[in-house]
């Protein structure tokens, strides 16, 4: 496997972050959504202003994933008040984890999860959690393979289209001496 690295995103990376966010979200979900709702969502969720605001929150962190020196994807993790739902200081939320199409199937998603688990443990977090669209069976199977379990649901809106996300969590303390 080629060299795989994570690089923290800074405000100077904002335009690249926006481009890769739009690209990966479109690739993942455009075909399953009403185009007008979908485009409205993209305009709001990935606007420069919103991404800038998210990046300025010290509890929200974005990282670029590089594979062989090429931008392969990105993640967004949230602590405490940046979390979209629980806002639990003992947890990290994985809000976004995306690998670009040309880099899928190379084990990079698993590599990213391992990095996030390590980061969570280093920071003394008890668990990771995320929301995943109930219609995204491939992602749900991926998270289950990595030890995540479902603990609830919440609505998620693409434009004005109400969808449902499963809330899943991974106990970072499992198997460790406390």
CATH superfamily: Gcn5-related N-acetyltransferase (GNAT)
pLDDT below 50 for ≥5 consecutive residues: which ranges?
none
As a whole number of angstroms, the C-alpha radius of gyration is 16 Å
Structural class: alpha+beta
Sequence of secondary-structure elements = EHHHEEEHEHEE
Name of the CATH class: Alpha Beta
Largest sheet: 7 strands, mixed
Instruction: State the total count of DSSP E strands.
Output: 7
The gross shape turns out to be globular
CATH topology: Aminopeptidase
Structure annotation, total helices: 5
**Any guess at the CATH architecture?**
3-Layer(aba) Sandwich
Strand proportion: 25-35%
Helix fraction by DSSP (H/I, runs of at least 4): 25-40%
Number of domains: 1
Taking all residues together, what is the mean pLDDT?
A: 94
Distance between the termini: 35 Å
Which strand order does the major sheet show? 1-2-3-4-5-7-6
